[in-house]
Amino acid sequence: MSKAVLVTGGSAGAGFAVAKLMASQGHRVAVTGRSAETGAAAGQVLDALSPGSFFVQGDAVDAAQGAAAVAEAARRLGGLDVLVSAGAQTPLGPLPFEQMTPAQIEEGFRIRVMGRILPVHAAIPFLRRSGNGSVVLLTTDAARHPTPGESVIGASGAAIILLTKSLARELTRDKIRVNAVALTITSDTVGWERMFANPQFGNGLFAKAVARFPSGRAPKAEEVAEAVAFLAGDGAGQITGQTLSVNGGLSFGGW
């Protein structure tokens, strides 16, 4: 059954991989993003996969702008069944906490947390009308496994994991499921390209991690998309409040 799907921050990276997969499955997909140029290109690809799919420009970190984008997407889709909250990238990668400025710490939390949760807040009224709504938030495995240089990244991710549990309980009465997918180093994403483009703290950190994947490689964005699409779909109708790690066996355990 075709669903009305919105992927915030879905014009590039893992979010775009999710959007393409869900469009190829016959769903009507809208994506949001900050760049009009990148978004327009993404919208054309999605419309070719599933006619009627499109891009709406908007910054998920800006409450008013993000809410307007969600409302516009829901209007053009004729409702909203699925929200995938992705994107919200910060230009600052891994860095030891002591070396971060207070402004960088504040920005890290603001972008990584607010950029994920504000779209959910804006989408709830539309998802409630669906009668079978689903939310999937993208987060990070750094929330489950402490890593040097990822204190703020991990703490922000942990906030998303707990929010996933809390919202799942709150929204059960509205028949809205809420789950999350936690990423590790993922190829075919903007973060991957940025991380290995120039020598920096995170470059060395993640180069070592990539060498430790049991399968010999990092997960691909398309593999993350498969997990997201499953949790968003009817096949996961009895799954809510959960966070699924797509980490290629790099780490185990967690909470």
Q: CATH top level?
A: Alpha Beta
Tell me the Rg in angstroms: 17 Å
CATH domain topology: Rossmann fold
For the secondary structure, the number of strands is 7
How do the helices and strands follow one another from N- to C-terminus? EHEHEHEHEHEHHHE
In terms of quaternary structure, the protein is single chain
The overall average pLDDT, rounded, is 89
- Biggest sheet statistics: 7 strands, parallel
Class computed from helices, strands and strand pairing: alpha/beta
The number of domains = 1
Mass-distribution shape: globular
Q: Uncertain runs with pLDDT below 50, 5 residues or more?
A: none
Q: Your description of this structure?
A:
It is built from 8 helices and 7 strands, in the order E-H-E-H-E-H-E-H-E-H-E-H-H-H-E. It is of the alpha/beta class and 255 residues long. It has one domain: Rossmann fold. A 7-stranded parallel sheet has the order 3-2-1-4-5-6-7, sandwiched between helices. 48% of the residues are buried.
Features of the shown structure:
255 residues; alpha/beta; Rossmann fold; seven-stranded parallel sheet; 8 helices; 7 strands; 15% strand
